[in-house]
Every structure is written in C-alpha cells, then in structure tokens.
Amino acid sequence: MLDLSRGKKLIGTHAISQRDYDVLNNAARESKAAREIAEAEVESARLSESYTRITAPVTGRISRAELTVGNLVAAGIDSPVLASIVALDPLYVAFNADERTYLNYIDKLSNKDKPEVLVGLADEKDYPHKAILHSVDNHLSTETGTIRMRALLDNPSSRLLPGLQARVRLQASKSYTAVMIDQTLIRTDQDRRYVLVVGNNDKVEYRPLELGNRQGKLIVVKKGLNKGDRVISGGAQLVSPGETVVVSKDESPSSKSREGNKSS
C-alpha cells in the first residue's frame, strides 16, 4: 500500500510510466484480497473453535459423558449423543385426575392464586412438598376416564430428580375447621358408620356418623360428633348404648374427637 501511495505521487509528476503504476496498483489489489482471505480464514477458524464448546440452554444436571476423548464426533440426527442434561428447578409433577376433579379445578386455573398440590415421595409418609397446579391436558382419556395434569414444584436443593415416583394430594376447597377422629375408632352397622361415645352421666351413646375426606389416619366427621365428645376406643365391643361406664382418667388423644384445620 505504501508503494501504491508513492506511485500515485510519481505518476502525477510523470516520474514513472503508466505501465509501472498499473503494476503497483494490481499488486496493491492482490495484497488487499489476500488480506481479506486471511481475515475470513481467521473468522472461520474462530467459528469452528466456538463449536467445540457447547453451552447448555437450561440450568440443570448433566449426565456422564457418552463419548470419551479419542472418539469421533460428528453432527447430524444419527450421530451419538455426547451427554444429556435435565432441568431440576423447577420440576414438573405429572399425574392423572378423574373427570370430577378436572371439573372442580378447571375454573381455578384462570385465577391468580393457582390451586396448591401437595407432593410426597416414596420414602415420605406425608406430603411435605408444595407445588402449584400448572396445566391441564386438552382431552380426557376414554380408556381410563382420567385427564393428565401437571404441577410446578420448586426444587432449589436439586434433591429431587426427574422420573421419581410421587404421590399427590389436591386441595379441593379452602381450609375449614372440622371434627376429625382416628379411623380405627369407627365401627360398622350394616351400611352405617358409627361410634360409641360416653355421654351425660357416663352413659354410652350410639352416634351414627356422616364422614368426609381422609387425612392420613384421621377422617372428617361431618355429622354425629362435636368437639370434645368422648369416643370409646378400647372395649367398645363389651358395652352397649344406655349402659353406665367408668371412664379411665388416662384417655388417649385418639379417643377424643377434636377439631383441626382440614383441606379436602
């Protein structure tokens, strides 16, 4: 380029011939073209080098390497997978619900406060994890009569992994105060459910029950019991309604009906 610049000055004063100037001009063009080719090769090499680093599109946990150093890596659908990655936070909890549950929840999905879904794992007795109902499938299975639902579960510790088996509990209504007793205290009389309680003057009373939903070992009593009623637990088969009994001072907590906050 310096020679061409000098040549422009010399050709202006007729110090060099037009032929010599044309030689300088052509050499400058060839030099510029060679530079552009070199820059393109550098950019191509930089692009190729960038392909050697794969950045995951999601945050999660990567599997073991399927290919080790020395194996040929190629692009294409039929090429072997290098590794797989799964997102861990949040997780989707998929489950099937019956038609009645779907009809109860579909209107609540459009609300700002999404229905809560309680989640328990195989090694957990209760439902310690709280998720939010996220989506519902667009059709009901005619084979099973159920519809697919998904809940969104926060997993900041990354302890939970995709594929784990889980149990779910849906909150069908807002929490309310209910009388609950241990299910083992309930007796059967043909198609009736009842308990024997110690009423006034320590006399045994027969109480037919209208039951609600279960929550662990407890069950909701809609009608038939009030808070504080003394339900006979041990020896109920030895007494009959109307008899007078002696109440033990050492009453177990399960022998009394009690109130609790219930979400059915």
Structural class: alpha+beta
The rough form would be described as rod-shaped
Biggest sheet, spatial arrangement of strands: 3-6-5-4-7
Gyration radius, in Å: 39 Å
Mean pLDDT: 81
* Text of the CATH class of the largest domain: Mainly Beta
Could you please say which CATH topology of the largest domain applies here? conserved putative lor/sdh protein from methanococcus maripaludis s2 fold
Q: Count of DSSP E strands?
A: 15
Order of helices and strands: HHEEEHEEEEEEEEEEEE
Strand content of the residues, in percent?
25-35%
Cα(first) to Cα(last) distance is 85 Å
The number of distinct helices, counting runs of at least 4 residues, comes to: 3
Low-confidence stretches: none
Structural domains: how many = 3
Proportion of residues in helical segments: 10-25%
Secondary-structure blueprint:
Blueprint (H helix, E strand, L loop, with lengths): L1 H11 L5 H33 L9 E3 L22 E3 L3 E8 H7 L10 E6 L7 E8 L9 E8 L12 E5 L5 E7 L4 E3 L2 E7 L5 E5 L1 E6 L2 E6 L6 E2 L26 E5 L2
Antiparallel strand pairs: 1-2, 3-6, 4-5, 4-7, 5-6, 8-13, 8-15, 9-10, 10-11, 10-14, 12-13
Helix pairs in contact: 1-2
How would you describe this structure to a colleague?
The chain is of the alpha+beta class. It has 3 domains: 2-50, no CATH class; 87-170, Elongation Factor Tu (Ef-tu), domain 3 (Beta Barrel), CATH 2.40.30.170; 176-262, Beta Barrel (conserved putative lor/sdh protein from methanococcus maripaludis s2 fold). It has 3 helices and 15 strands. It has helices at residues 2-12, 18-50, 99-105, and strands at 60-62, 85-87, 91-98, 116-121, 129-136, 146-153, 166-170, 176-182, 187-189, 192-198, 204-208, 210-215, 218-223, 230-231, 258-262. The strands form 4 sheets. The protein has a 5-stranded antiparallel sheet with strand order 3-6-5-4-7. β10 (192-198) and β11 (204-208) form a beta hairpin. It is rod-shaped.
